[in-house]
Design brief:
This protein is an alpha+beta fold. It is built from ten helices and twelve strands. It has helices at residues 23-38, 85-97, 132-136, 153-159, 168-175, 193-205, 209-221, 266-277, 286-292, 366-379; strands spanning 44-51, 54-65, 70-71, 78-79, 118-119, 124-125, 263-264, 313-315, 320-322, 336-339, 345-349, 354-359.
Amino acid sequence: MALTDASVILEAEATPESAGFSAAGLAEIRRRLEVDVAGGKIPGAVWLVERRGRLACLEAIGYRNRAAATAMTTDSIFRIYSMTKPMTSIALMMLVESGRIGLDDPVADYLPEFGAPTVGVARAPCPTVMTVRHLMTHTAGLTYGVFDFSPVGPLYIKAGVHGRDQTLAEMCAKLGPLPLSSAPGSQWEYSVATDVVGRLVEVVSGQGFDRFLEARIFDPLGMVETGFFVPESEHGRMAESSGEKLIDRRRPAKMLSGGGGLVSTASDYLRFARAILAGGGGLVSPETLAEMARDQIGALAGTGPLYIPGGGYGFGLGFAVRTQEEGWAPGAIGDLSWGGYAGTYFWVDPLNDLIAMFLVQAPERREHYRALIRRLVYAALAE
């Protein structure tokens, strides 16, 4: 990760009106956030809205470090946690495109440690084969031990599945022998599956996961401020939480988490979102991106202990996919979205040719702001 001052993408800058927004409507976002910063609900935030290829809004408010009274700026660096997942999914689909792995291949063909699965704490025989597609759609029968979503969760913690002082290979060696929380293909459950996808990228490509991302995604898109840690020279640009202590990204870690390990900036992630809106943007073909953007889970929407995509959404290959007019917040059929544990969130709306992003480090407020920003952005649409 080599950081440079590339925080503002000026080539597409525009007025709100030229992008089809009401300036007053977009100003309402700032007004609402000013109230929340003053009230101590969040330390600060960065948000952006782009439509029709025009950057209508890129703003920062509050503090990136309230304790140090350091102002938030648009080039602040955020722990994006699970907003890493769409990039990991794109990485795997690059290998699918090249014919080196198939979505319906058994995971055990590449990771033998997953070759003898059992289900539940009673370790019943597994009736179905775990495939790569199951991993990509969170229907593989895996869970997230740190959230304790199922009785199997504590076994993950006991085995040390979530430790940062281990490689992806070491994590999978611990995870493979553990029982599944459910049979693959039987329910949607948020899980460490995307970390396993990161390991698949390593095995199939023969490269370290970080090197693959740099060579195939970050460098081609000019994402010079995205990586698995922040160099010491840039520590002062890191946004911090005023409450819960967040994971340390100030030094390299062995665990290159495909599910939640990256840091990034608004402008860097915008480059990635633009590639998605452009049907792959040269990363993958339009046909591949269309497959990723297609609801893959059908009747499994809403199943499992915690269905994070929410009402009105199915799930594709790495994104929540809007499938219904009515949903938990405003949106459009076919919009793609995902967020991170600490409150970061983005969505791409092809129907309205729109990208929106909200970056904050406030885990306890993440659901509130995802809904709020969606409401305010769609309310500001003028045409």
